[in-house]
Sequence to fold (120 residues):
Amino acid sequence: MKPLLGNGKICYVEMPAIDVQRSAEFYEKVFGWQLRKRGDGAIAFDDGVGQVSGTWVTGRPPATPGLLIYIMVDSVAATIDIITAHGGEIVQPMGADAPEITAHFRDPGGNVIGLYQQPN
Fold:
């Protein structure tokens, strides 16, 4: 599916990483992001629905709130298990934002990211 294009769309994300390969594998295994090599040889990603792309960069401090980005998942509870199995750390458990279904995790690069589950 081609991404929707338009004024104001978030289109590209640069995520701080300590070890780009480790971070890439984490997001590929946890969220099913598609990995690819850019023309300059850097590892890039396309999110699980092909709407946002980006890359990992070294030499930047990890993203911690301030700006908090949420990744939509089918099940926050199931995703928490996958995150911890692949070296991530839960920093805000599910239920803290009730009635919204969310959690926050720290990825291998130290970035804090949110999880969001659409209510049924």
Strands lie at 12-16, 34-37, 43-46, 53-57, 70-73, 89-92, 101-106, 112-117.
